[in-house]
UniProtKB/TrEMBL annotation:
Transmembrane segments: none annotated. Its EC number is 3.5.1.16. Belongs to the peptidase M20A family. This is Acetylornithine deacetylase. NCBIfam families: DapE-ArgE (TIGR01910), PRK06837.1 (NF005306). It comes from the Bacteria.
Length: 425
């Protein structure tokens, strides 16, 4: 690709950036929490059709996915779950095919009064766009779409097949991405513009979700000693799991990518529900937990360690020793992923990065997970993950930095052109 061609694409990104931000605002304004992603998928489908892409919009059937590697159990109403894929087919097939993927699901906003601006009324100020999903990762998804637009606006068209995929469930199971593979979508490489702070994810953790179900013995509080407090018993188990977390982080010191990361494997009791009455010793307590695992670790073996930890802690408890808790797997059962066998797409991205940022692409050992794992682990499709800077993902006042978003859109556009090839329209 010539310097002149590169510059035409970069100029086209600049020319379309205000329109890109307007579309991003519209996308962020949709409260697409788990089970409510439909309007976002409608919007993506419309955007793809307007651009002339061949659109595949289907309902996800869990029965089709449950036996596939990386599947996580679905507990909520899944009757409206959909995946949307827009396909571009070249008239002259000369380059390498590509999957561009973003997820439209977002995590709950939490107490609205703790946001400076409403989470689903995206606000631009001080060079940032604020809103739930503005960073993670709606701005990246729309950025990839406008990267394709910039190539067209520059008078060019890709010379390879491109699948633009909008998925759900990235934040809880990943079955949206898994559904695209079950549907048969493949490419020579995958690119996911998650907000990585302008770094390339070299290695990422896997994640296990599980639920502790603790049952106690209820009595009136005036005779609390005669009962068994399920909430307090759950805390006993949480403390034991914190020790398992510490053990796993000691093992992580031997990992070639994560040994330089302080405490890469995080355990989090994220939801706790229990009891019925303030003056009754609680008879039940459920705790939803998340813990990370390293690439190469067996999910099944890690599950066994979690069960053994909970069992040992229960044996060391006066009530739980005779009333053992249950452990339910409640979402992610996801392996970690290391980017390997990816020299060709990385070389193409390195050229794009150099033209926009200069220098060498920085690597990152990521203490969260992305959908890249499905492509690399299930089908040996090298899956790159790179995106803009931002902050407060899953927190209050989430934002993406607009200058960084502009640059990452440019890098995405140049990568598509380099990898897929382009010719004049």
């Amino acid at each position: 690709m010539t310097t002149d061609t590169q510059q035409k694409i970069l100029d086209a990104v600049d020319a379309g950036f205000e329109a890109q931000l307007a579309t991003t605002r519209d996308f962020v304004a949709i409260p697409s929490t788990r089970g409510a992603e439909g309007p976002c998928q409608d919007m993506i489908g419309d955007l793809l059709r307007q651009r002339g892409y061949e659109v595949d919009d289907w309902h996800i059937d869990v029965e089709d996915l449950k036996d596939l590697r990386g599947f996580g159990p679905i507990e909520h109403d899944f009757s409206r779950a959909r995946t949307v894929v827009g396909t571009y087919r070249p008239s002259n097939n000369a380059g390498k095919s590509l999957i561009l993927q973003g997820h439209c699901d977002v995590v709950p906003a939490g107490p609205l009064d703790m946001w400076e601006t409403p989470p689903f009324s995206p606000t631009i100020k001080d060079g940032r766009m604020y809103g739930r999903g503005a960073c993670d990762m709606k701005s990246g998804t729309i950025g990839a779409l406008y990267a394709l637009d910039a190539i067209k606006a520059a008078g060019l068209k890709p010379t390879a097949r491109i699948h633009f995929q909008s998925v759900i469930e990235e934040e809880s199971t990943g079955v949206g991405a898994l559904s695209t593979l079950q549907r048969g979508y493949r490419a020579d490489a995958c690119f996911i513009p998650e907000p990585t702070g302008e770094t390339m994810v070299r290695s990422q953790v896997g994640v296990i979700w599980f639920r502790l179900k603790v049952r106690g013995f209820p009595v009136h509080v005036f005779e609390a000693g005669a009962g068994a407090n399920a909430i307090m018993a759950a805390y006993h188990l949480i403390h034991a799991l914190q020790k398992l977390e510490a053990d796993w982080n000691e093992r992580a010191k031997a990992d070639r990518h994560f040994k330089a990361v302080n405490h890469p494997l995080n355990f989090n009791p994220g939801i706790i529900k229990g009891g019925d009455w303030a003056s009754s010793v609680p008879a039940w307590c459920d705790v939803d937990c998340r813990i990370a695992v390293l690439p190469g670790w067996s999910i099944a073996e890690c599950q066994k360690e979690i069960l053994a930890c909970v069992s040992a802690a229960a044996r060391d408890h006066r009530f739980l020793s005779n009333n053992p808790p249950q452990v339910e797997w409640s979402g992610f059962l996801s392996e970690g992923y290391e980017l390997v066998n990816s020299a060709e797409p990385e070389a193409a991205f390195a050229k794009a990065f150099g033209a926009v940022y200069g220098g060498v692409v920085p690597d990152r050992a990521f203490t969260a997970l992305t959908d890249t794992r499905f492509y690399g682990l299930n089908h040996n499709i090298p899956s790159l993950c790179f995106g803009a800077k931002g902050a407060a993902m899953h927190g209050f006042n989430e934002y993406v930095e607009l200058d960084s978003l502009r640059k990452s859109t440019k890098a995405t556009a140049l990568f598509i052109a380099e990898w897929c090839g382009v010719e004049k329209v």
